[in-house]
Amino acid sequence: MNLGLIAENANFFLKAGGYALVIFITSTAASIAISAILGTLATVRIRVIQAVIRGMVELIRGVPQVISLFFVYFGAPAFGLQFTPLQATIVSLTLWGGANGAEVVRGGINAVPRHQLESARSLGIAPLDSLRFVILPQAVRLVLPAYAGLCNMLMHSTSLGALVGVTELLKSGQIVIERAEYFHGGSPGLSIYGFLLVVYFLAGLTMNAAVVRLERRLGTATRRS
Prior knowledge:
The protein is an all-alpha fold. It is built from 9 helices and no strands.
């Protein structure tokens, strides 16, 4: 691995990593909010609402992420919306993450035993309070592993921003390789992409460790309660 070339471009990689982090944090936070709302509404026993949400979710899930990104970036101006490359990447990942997360949330809520809700109602607890204090806390523990995998995919998908010009990690690697080929000759592609592979691997490892710790804390809180 060409450590000298990586060290020379350390600040450039750090700045690119900052863009990737902004994309990941923003799209993940927005996806969680959207998926919580859509996933909860999908469990409501009103056929019209279920059909509309189901149609939206399946439409977004059925479109490849690359096509979704290009549609948001190149197609949105036709509807009077103009996004920067960074904004388009965040919006497309948010839509994709929200749609897939909605299915995870819906499955988690439906996995909570029905008698939990019936018991809450028999105690005179309001429907919204039953959902908030009885159903959702149990659903969170059920969906956490699947949602962690979804967040991991969102993190890796930040590299799609390179396709529309966002200087995130993948794009920065491509730029460094092109510069090195032009000024020094030869191709440091193996070293640069190997470095990016290690960065993404360590980021995923850190996220998985955080999820495991969160699962343990939730388990401890459950045992205490």
